[in-house]
Design goal:
With about 170 residues, the protein is an alpha+beta fold. About 35% of the residues lie in helices and about 20% in strands. The chain has six helices and seven strands, in the order βαβαββααβββαα. The protein has helices at about 10, 30-45, 75-80, 85-95, 130-145, 150-160; strands at about 1-5, 20-25, 50-60, 65-70, 110-120, 120, 125-130. β6 (about 120) and β7 (about 125-130) form a beta hairpin.
């Protein structure tokens, strides 16, 4: 099983309020039913960890997603102790090798919002995850059009400030 960050954290277009989009591969999901079942199992497992503040599977979305809120100040060693992760690799990630996010601007409790999706296998055994494709496209356009970065950041900030930047609500 592998994970890959995609979306705004991968392209450098993340706002301080952005979530982290993570795709999980290596779980056999050939159809929507097995994909939703796998996401539900992951959700149930994560309910046991105190660093998971919120855990909401949205299985009716076009792309089923597990929306998580993570408390980064909780000791993550419980994952290694439960045998769910390699402790040495976890330490590397937690020591700042991941994307840089501003966890708290106003003194409130720091929270990392995560959208977890599964990479499904197509009928011929190839992977299908549009998040990878859209990330690659955004990176290509950012390289080609130098002013696109600032225009995108300003537009995203404007939309966020007017509560118009949440695709889950269909806006």
């Amino acid at each position: 099983m592998k994970t890959k960050i995609f979306g705004s954290c991968a392209t450098g277009l993340a706002l301080t309020t952005s979530d982290v989009d993570i795709a999980v591969s290596g779980i056999e999901t050939y159809d929507r039913a097995t994909l939703c079942e796998s996401l539900s199992k992951i959700s149930e497992t994560l309910k046991n960890f105190k660093w998971v503040l919120s855990n909401k599977p949205i299985l009716t979305a076009h792309v089923p997603v597990l929306k998580l809120e993570i408390d980064p100040q909780v000791d993550f060693n419980e994952l290694a102790e439960a045998g769910l992760v390699d402790e040495t690799k976890t330490r590397i990630i937690l020591n700042g090798q991941g994307p840089e996010l501003n966890l708290s601007e106003d003194g409130e409790k720091a929270i990392i919002k995560v959208d977890l999706t599964l990479e499904s296998l197509g009928m011929m055994g190839y992977t299908v995850h549009m998040g990878y494709r859209s990330t690659e496209f955004a990176e290509k356009m950012l390289a080609q059009y130098k002013s696109l970065y600032i225009v995108t950041i300003v537009l995203k900030e404007y939309l966020y400030n007017h509560q118009l930047l949440n695709t889950f609500h269909g806006i």
